[in-house]
C-alpha cells in the first residue's frame, strides 16, 4: 500500500504562515462548528492523506483531525528537562496545586507568538492562587532547530516566564496528551483530572481581536471555585506539532 500526502482546499482551516503546513482543530457539531469556522482566519487548506491501494484499485481520502483527552482523564505523568535551569521537572511536583495548566507551545509558531505576553500574564495572575503552570515544547529539532532547548531557554528569559518551559525530546508527552497543535491548553483540577481542553481566547493573528486569555481565565476561575465546566469548549487552533520525520502518532492521521 502506498501512502501519499497531499494538500487540498477545504473551508475553515488555515495554513501556518511560517511553514505553510495545515492547522488542526477538534471538530465541533452544528452551530458551534459554524461559529468556530467564522472565527478562524480566512485562508483555507487542510492536510489530507491520499491512500492508494493497488490491490483494490481504490482511492480513499482521509482528513487529519485532532484528538482529545476525555474530561476527567488523569493528567499523564512526565519528567522533562527545563532547558533554562537544567533541572528535570516532574508533574508530581505540582500534586498539591489547586489547578494545573499544561500548555503545548513552541518558539517559532506565529499563533504562539501572538499570545506569549498574555500567557505570561495569566501565569502571574493565577500562580498566587495555587495554580501550577507548565509549558511544553515537543517540536522536532530535526526539522525546526529554532525550537530546540537553547532557544527555549532564551525565549523563557525574554518573555519573563515564571513557569517551567519543558523540552519533550522524544515527543512521548505530546502523544500521551494527544496534542496536535501549538498552542494547545489543558486545565486539570485539584485531583489532576482534566477539566478543560480548548482555546486561549478568540484572538488570532490579524483578526483584530484583543488577546485576553478569556477562555483559559474563565476555566481556571471555574475550577478554583469548584464549578463544573461545560463539556463543550472551542478548540485551539495553531501550527501542527512538528513530529520527527516518519514518526507521526497514529491519531495524527493515516500512517
* Structural domain tally: 2
The global form is globular
Strand content: 15-25%
Please give the radius of gyration in angstroms. 18 Å
Biggest sheet architecture: 5 strands, mixed
Per CATH, what is the topology of the largest domain? Answer: Glutaredoxin
Main structural class: alpha+beta
User: Number of helical runs?
Assistant: 6
Classified by CATH, the class of the largest domain is: Alpha Beta
Q: Please name the CATH architecture of the largest domain.
A: 3-Layer(aba) Sandwich
| Total strand segments | 13
Average pLDDT, to the nearest integer?
79
Low-confidence stretches: 1-66
GO molecular function: antioxidant activity; oxidoreductase activity
Organism: Apatococcus lobatus
Domain Thioredoxin: 69-225
InterPro entries: AhpC/TSA, PRX-like1, Thioredoxin-like_sf, Thioredoxin_domain
What can you tell me about this protein's structure?
The protein is an alpha+beta fold. It has two domains: 2-66, no CATH class; 79-240, Glutaredoxin. The protein has helices at 30-39, 110-113, 116-126, 149-159, 172-176, 214-225; strands spanning 2-8, 23-24, 46-53, 58-63, 79-82, 87-90, 99-104, 131-137, 165-167, 181-182, 184-188, 194-198, 238-240. The strands form four sheets. The protein has a five-stranded mixed sheet with strand order 9-8-7-11-12. A three-stranded antiparallel sheet has the order 1-3-4, with no helix packed on it. Strand 5 and strand 6 form a beta hairpin. The relative contact order is 0.20. InterPro entries: AhpC/TSA, PRX-like1, Thioredoxin-like_sf, Thioredoxin_domain.
Amino acid at each position: 500500500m502506498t501512502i501519499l500526502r497531499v494538500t487540498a482546499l477545504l473551508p475553515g482551516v488555515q495554513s501556518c504562515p511560517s511553514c505553510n503546513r495545515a492547522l488542526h482543530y477538534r471538530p465541533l457539531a452544528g452551530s458551534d462548528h459554524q461559529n468556530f469556522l467564522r472565527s478562524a482566519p480566512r485562508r483555507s487548506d487542510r492536510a489530507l492523506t491520499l491512500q492508494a491501494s493497488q490491490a483494490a484499485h481504490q482511492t480513499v481520502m482521509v482528513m487529519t483531525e485532532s484528538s482529545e483527552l476525555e474530561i476527567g482523564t488523569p493528567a499523564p505523568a512526565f519528567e522533562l528537562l527545563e532547558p533554562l535551569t537544567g533541572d528535570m521537572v516532574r508533574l508530581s511536583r505540582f500534586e498539591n496545586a489547586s489547578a494545573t495548566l499544561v500548555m503545548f507551545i513552541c518558539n517559532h509558531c506565529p499563533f504562539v507568538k501572538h499570545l506569549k505576553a498574555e500567557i505570561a500574564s495569566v501565569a502571574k495572575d493565577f500562580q498566587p492562587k495555587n495554580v501550577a503552570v507548565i509549558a511544553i515544547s515537543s517540536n522536532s529539532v530535526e526539522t525546526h532547530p529554532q525550537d530546540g532547548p537553547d532557544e527555549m531557554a532564551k525565549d523563557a528569559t525574554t518573555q519573563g516566564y515564571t513557569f517551567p518551559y519543558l523540552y519533550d525530546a522524544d515527543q512521548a508527552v505530546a502523544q500521551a496528551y494527544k496534542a496536535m497543535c501549538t498552542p494547545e491548553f489543558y486545565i486539570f483540577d485539584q485531583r489532576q483530572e482534566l477539566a478543560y481542553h480548548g482555546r486561549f481566547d478568540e484572538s488570532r493573528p490579524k483578526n483584530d481581536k484583543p488577546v485576553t486569555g478569556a477562555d483559559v481565565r474563565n476555566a481556571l476561575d471555574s475550577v478554583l471555585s469548584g464549578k463544573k465546566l461545560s463539556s463543550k469548549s472551542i478548540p485551539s487552533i495553531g501550527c501542527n506539532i512538528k513530529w520527527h520525520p516518519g514518526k507521526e502518532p497514529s491519531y495524527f492521521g493515516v500512517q
